């Protein structure tokens, strides 16, 4: 959002105009970069007050540009000037702020990418440059999958309404989805994003339990709406100690690599569950009552954490005893990403069933849809309030048609089997790299949920935060696809969620790797060596 203040015109300091003209004369700045940067029209000054430097605010610069390049059309002159002004302000230590979503960072901000189309595992920029997409956890069955597109178009041509009308797609999708879950998870609520799903899950838990408080894991992220920032330590801890709300209780992440109880502990599952028991005890001592324990079935941006065996069973027991429910957030890790199971919570064994499961991201392969699935008892308690639940877009016929297509593709293309095969191969390649690079401390994952934990010291397991960031933000490989996009699933920037996305992508990536066996390993080597060099410079 743009602040509503009367912006003063930007003032150039001595030498700045010369610098800008110099920049203008430097034609190495590519056109796509200009196209991107022209969208950035708001600039902050040193004191963080706002200045709007739209093209009309810089007539002198436009004139200067025309003097230097008389043949160029005016619009590109304006773009150039915008860019140069931005750079000049940057040199003065000012930050630039985009007109749209000023708090949202673009990927690879120093050299951002403009993607114009994508197919399978590849994305293409406007110059036709191909990128191997290692960052996308949404295009689960591959970018622009024709079956998904076909299903969407077919239904859109026919009808799109809301769930106040009867429609077969809704019923069929609910049936297909619940068939992937244990029997007791039988009631669906269709919503539009992971955040909406988690927010509704909290409402269900509170209504059912009659309690308000929530236990969450350290480093957790569960969504961007107010109710979820409150229970996402990954976010609220950035706002300082005061930011934690009284109703929120943070339990340690069950991290057996760097946490309190590690792989050498005889029973880390019980030990970490006992921590939750203690959290409940302390809450009760303060007259607070627990409505829910919420956790991703495997923590993703919390550091690629695989809960130790027995952990969820015991936590569930303690939370139930306290009158609360267990919410499994499968927004990132659901829909077969782990390969051998459809849902990641199933890795804990058949004797564990959450009370509520939330889904999102891959569910619609990019179409905004999500879902909450719960038990009959919880749904009845929610309904008993008499308060109607209506969601304008949730469960519309088009979304459900897309959801059905995604489920079909996962099955038809054996993407779960693929996730296991490719995931194992990826881990093998990464293990080879671990032997070569001391910086790789740990490789952990299941299926295509794979993380590489970078360390400064293997013994001490000190997070190599800066090095990880170097790989994430500065890497640019000249091997295979011109550039690959690693993800930054991490706690304190320490874990690279190196190759996390859709199975279809990785299915093809496997083929690409088989065509050119050294490609994947070489990319990692290059990344690691680049950060070795960087580390040496620290
Ligand atoms: C684990 C988890 N839960 C919930 C969300 C929120 O989903 P959305 O961005 O669709 O609202 C995210 C998003 O990154 C997530 O990673």
Automatic annotation (TrEMBL):
Domain of life: Eukaryota
Statement: the UniProt record of this protein carries the keyword RNA-binding: no
Catalytic activity: phosphoethanolamine + H2O = acetaldehyde + NH4(+) + phosphate
Annotated Chromo domain residues: 19-77
Cofactor(s) annotated in UniProt: pyridoxal 5'-phosphate
Compartment annotation: Mitochondrion; Nucleus
Entry keyword annotation includes Lyase: yes
Keywords in alphabetical order: Lyase, Mitochondrion, Pyridoxal phosphate
Documented EC number(s): 4.2.3.2
InterPro entries tied to this protein: Aminotrans_3, Aminotrans_3_PPA_site, Chromo-like_dom_sf, Chromo/chromo_shadow_dom, Chromo_domain, PyrdxlP-dep_Trfase, PyrdxlP-dep_Trfase_major, PyrdxlP-dep_Trfase_small
Principal location: mitochondrion
Pfam families: Aminotran_3, Chromo
Purpose: Catalyzes the pyridoxal-phosphate-dependent breakdown of phosphoethanolamine, converting it to ammonia, inorganic phosphate and acetaldehyde.
Recorded family membership: Belongs to the class-III pyridoxal-phosphate-dependent aminotransferase family.
Binding partners and assembly: Homotetramer.
Record protein name field: Ethanolamine-phosphate phospho-lyase
